[in-house]
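Illustration 12: N-acetylglucosamine-induced protein 1.
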Amino acid sequence: MPHEEPLPFWLVNVPRDQWPTECPDFLKELSDKDRRIIGTPDSQYEKLTWEEVRHWISINRVDLFHRVPSELRRYRQFTHRLVKEYGSITNFIVNERLQWQSMSPKGQPFECQEEDIKILYNDWPYGIDDKIVHLVVWTKFELEDDAETGYSTPESHQQIDGFVQRTFGGKVKPENYAWFKNWRSLKSVHAVEHFHVMLYDPDKELVEELTKGDVPMTAKFP
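Figure caption equivalent — predicted structure in token form:
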């Protein structure tokens, strides 16, 4: 049998009748890691279970979270378009997703929830069990990181944990929620403070209430 050359990464997971003649602009300046992920067939990707998600969070290996290959491709296409239309991803987040007129916090961290905090869906969630709801908590105030490690300081970790316990603790079983804050080196949006909360099979009305009816961009982007 003739030897088949592997497909270029930018053609993987794309129907043959939609193959571009050359690598699209939004895929030309990717890291080796992203090229490797996008070049993996979706059929070979295994979504993380809730147990695996909790384990990676518990040992602070959030760098092991990845998007499904075809979803990472869509994400890169989306962010490429955002930079062209809005100048930066941050501009889009602040003006369109958060709709904050001012980035100055009204109070101390977690003191003024209505004014300084917004809970939205993660627009492009990781490759995780479909029963897991991935939320992002955006804040106008800073949450301090350790300058050497890039991890949350003990104080900011305690502040975040207290908020998560107050917000989700009485509404979701303890074993069905977890939070993490990306290391500084892993953040895709640096200018606006945020951390992540994952809920396993939560009540839909609760999520609707927390996000005020938010719809993630992945559901809107073709």
